[in-house]
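Lab notebook, bench 4. We co-purified these components, and the gel suggests they stay together. Before we commit to crystallization screens, I want a quick structural picture of the whole thing.
Request: model the full complex, all chains together.
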Amino acid sequence: MKVSLFLSCYHDTLFPEALKSTVKVLERLGHTIDVPMQQTCCGQMHFNTGYQTECMPLLDNMLAAFKEAEVVVSPSASCVGMMREYYPYLAEQHGTHAQAEAVAALNAKTFELSDFLVNKLGVEDVGAYYPHRVTFHPTCHSTRMLKIGDAPLKLLRNVKGIDLVELGAKEECCGFGGTFSLKNADTSMAMLSSKIKNIMNTGAEICTAADTSCLMHIGGGLHRLRTGIKTLHLAEILASTEEHAHVS
Amino acid sequence: MSVKLPMFEKTAPENVQNSQLRRNLGKVTGAIRVKRARVVDEMPDWEALRDAGYALKTKVLRNLDTYLLELETSVTRVGGKVHWAQSAQEANQIVTDLVKSHGATEVIKVKSMTTEETRLNDALAASGIKAIETDLAELIIKLANEESSHILVPAIHKNRSEIRELFIRTLGEPDLTDEPANLAGAARRYLRKKFLTVPVGISGANFAVAETGTIAVVESEGNGRMCTTLPKVLITMMGIEKIIPTWQDFEVFMQTLPRSSTAERMNPYNSFWTGVHEGDGPQEFHLVLVDNGRTEVLKDEIGRQTLNCIRCSACLNVCPVYERTGGHAYHSVYPGPIGAILTPQLIGIENASSLPYASSLCGACYEVCPVKINIPEVLVHLRGRAIKYKKDHGTLKDKLSPEHLGMQAVAKVFANQSRYESAQKLARMGQGVLAKEGYISSLPGYLSGWTAMRDLKTLPQESFRDWWRKREGQK
Amino acid sequence: MSKESMLAAIRIALKDVPETETPKDTVVPRAYLTRLETSLEERLELFTERIEDYKVVVHRIKENEISANIEACLQARAAKTIVIPTDFPDTWLAQGFSFVQDENLSHQQLDESDGVITGCEVAVAQTGSIALAAGKYQGRRAISLLPDYHLCLVFASQVVDLVPEAFEKLEPSVKNRKPITFISGPSATSDIELNRVEGVHGPRTLEVLLIV
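Here is the predicted assembly.
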């Protein structure tokens, strides 16, 4: 299958390793990767902060970038969530009927990575090897908005050598929330401190998730506190093999 | 009027640091979440009940004029009198005049969010009428001279030892222990005389049935039964959205409301009265229908679903933000997620523009809402309205704020591939002075909120797209 | 005045709703349970279990044991003055107590009594609830409210499985303009640390005679 990669601007710019790993996993499974260079940002930050009209050129750009794509996959659950949940809203509130139709067509072929692997391809074992103690944080947008359920866990359970430990109060928000983490930094941190406490209680070396944005927040706190615990995107664990083990 | 305008981000930090508040709320919301999950999980048809509740509320809101007229006809038929009030002032005036016409100087009240919203007690006091709150938590709040911090349990921020201390001081009960049963006993002694003698009762309404004119009050302590049964005159003030079409529709809401609010299969008492009952209860009944901003909510096709709310408070109990800031940070009669969407619509987005931002958009509230209000959707919708207001009517200072300028500049960059790629390069070069061993620990201005408490990984030397181009080029 | 302007404002607010639309056009999906296949025994067991959750004492008795059980319950509480509805059968009453028929008793008199005995209109197994509807043996609302002790007679035939069945059974009472009270345990409060604590303004003790 030819898979078009939906990069998400912060993966592209800040966390390219998650994307490179996504490429590795999909190519290992025999798929061809295509990266439409026209894509930039899905508009989530603007939208969630209230700058809706500013999102429209971004929405148009994304529609154009993926118009010809057969299937679109992204390692960012929240960017896919933005597209799935709020592109229809934007088209309805600020756009045209044609845009609404194009959005529906795009959404029908767009998937978050683990959802794509488990629910679309029916693959739960991607042949990964990762001999570390890992805990998984189910991010809000992946579970409540995209409802991908335990797709990431199914993949993680099949990783060779992994010591997967359950995170306490796992479904509670880490406190990121985009610009919420700036506007309400104290409240955001109060939420993060609970998340960090729960992560530390697991004794894990690594905290993983299907969303780098939350991991950036959690990882920023873990680093500031010098906990020695690292964050890693799910794709990076899945990309790691016995021949090419991920070195963190 | 000295109403504090909501400014959540300014007041939340001090509440976040209040260790007593954090402990009280953490303990209580944690326990109620577990209990709620237990009584919801035993219902195999829970989702079907949520769907039915949503549809029933939608039906009422889309035909609200029809249903209000039907309710008026029904209530009148069964011996009640219906009053219409467009504003809080008008509603308060109607009630005050009714109380005065009976020569009463005291009224007993069942906890009612609508009368909190209209500040009825202040209006009555201005006419020399004392309103006696009979709900335990409401009584605690009034005795402590504080504001409510929760829809259902206004004194949720207070623990048992704080309440004991308050009762010893204000009720003249020196021998109280901090046993909740003991504290409840003190309230029973204090209020019993009032129940037996005060001639006018005032209540809100959880539901009003258009078909039969029946009003429902859902409660626990029996104070609701007292206030709606013992006085000679009963006045009920309700928001116009509280209608349900038929009696049989209670089969939905009387299942979802108790389990969502106090996490019980059924709360101790539900009172349903249908006008005036001969020889039983008040012989005069008035129903005051209040708009007070509700038609403004109705007007917004996305915001309209906010009026589905049955005030269960499940969204407060699961909200990770509410759990940490408490209700007072919202400066709103309705705190928590529902307050963050209801208050800005009732009082105008320009007066409460910080509230839609008082959320990380985690969606836990939507998941538990028994009438399926998509709270995250309404939150982002209202953020859109807040920014539109800022653009259309904001001050120069608003328009020159770093966020406002930044968002618009970044949007221009993101709209175009080549501008976007140039910006990636610029950012990589610009971070040099801030980075130390792969992390940034201090950012300037608007972004300083991030690094006040979190480190930020530095930008890698190569973006994904650069890597990809190189790789494709080598093929 | 306000009525007309409120209705006008509502109609303007609903301008997206087609003028021809009526309440019937919104379909309410009712996929929730309205009946259960249970035996009488299962139903009574669940009712007992659920009402006991509210710290209610339930005595399962036969019809010819009513009088003896009323006597035992009142004796155990040392209750003397007991209010009863005017239609309460004499044959169920026991000797040695002062039963006062509610011939329009004052609130003060009700408050000073030691307890009240009533029947009920319907009871719900699913939630452990009892509903009074000013029907047979139920009396007016104040009598089951002011005394501190409420002894309630529930006949097995009055118990339904589910909440929807109860509302269906109560519909005739509502249409006859009867007031309805659902009682699920003694009065309680969740206002202190969101813990349910029994005993506030309504009766602090509720006891049930389940007549099979």
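The radius of gyration of chain B is 26 Å. Worth comparing against the SEC data before the next meeting. Residues 321 and 360 of chain B are 8 Å apart (CA to CA).
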